[in-house]
UniProtKB/TrEMBL annotation:
Coiled coil: none annotated. Keywords: Antiviral defense, DNA-binding, Endonuclease, Hydrolase, Magnesium, Manganese, Metal-binding, Nuclease. This is CRISPR-associated endonuclease Cas1. One of its GO terms (molecular function) is metal ion binding. HAMAP family: Cas1.
Amino acid sequence: MRKLLNTLFVTQPDTYLSLDGDNIVLKKNKEVLGRVPLHNLESVITFGYTGASPALMGYCAEKNISIVFLNQNGKFRARVIGNSRGNVTLRKEQYRISDDEEKSARIASNFIIGKLYNSKWIIERTTRDYPLRVNVDKFKKSSKQITELLKEVRQCLDLDLLRGLEGQAALSYNSVVNDMILQQKENFYFTFRSRRPPLDNVNAMLSFAYTLLANDTTSALETVGLDAYIGFLHRDRPGRASLALDLMEELRGVYADRFVLSLVNKKVMNKNDFVQKENGAILMTEDGRKKFLQAWQKKKQEKITHPFLGDKITWGLVPYAQALLLARYIRGDIDEYPPFLWK
């Protein structure tokens, strides 16, 4: 159980939610795990739920407190709300911003700032932790290039130019990714990003990690009442969760990339976890996917201090914290969307 930005996160599995007066009561096997006053909550988000009492759902609907049900992996199931005036207002403003390229660019630039900042931090941390195992000059050159691009991104309010700057930074960052692979070099290497299909073991893992992260950010956005399919950096395309792709940009490197590198360098994954198809595509085996997912779930339970909020949360709640902050910015509660700047 975790309270964050007037939102109660219930992360314990098999927890039943009920009402007692003006309080929400959390029970597991009839044992009371906690009791929280409802009067200052905006929403309740529960992972892997057993259920919620009709009395609680009716109370929350009347008080305009949403209850969101996710499975244990964070996939969106359903949301119980009363009058939808809050979400309607929020989404209408989201659509207005999306239709205005300059306003979209103001938010998009912060997504890119987060991505570049975190990419730079990953590079700098590698040189700090492994100065005798990597080419420090090469890493410092890449870091310097990203720093210069960060300065340009901060001043940019043109979406096409932002995408170009992000692309340049990605090339600089990708140029040192292979050097971050310190173990099993004969079977794990990164030359360039290949997606459809992935052509090596590392790209196969990156694609899977990005898919999982995109699912998490989509659920997070739906949870706070935003439309995951209407983006600011990624423009509208049928079937694409554009805002989820926007939000995950700042988390790709620091969350997904570092996770994949750790699986290789700690020898959690090995060459036997992959198979090559006739068209050259590399896929994970069933056992490989199982190991990957187990490690991903473990990663989501690791605790960190959120750099903007200052609260201790798990990695798995980071997309939800960012979605909440984005919703608050769109509603006008805060002056600027704060990207996730991890160090």
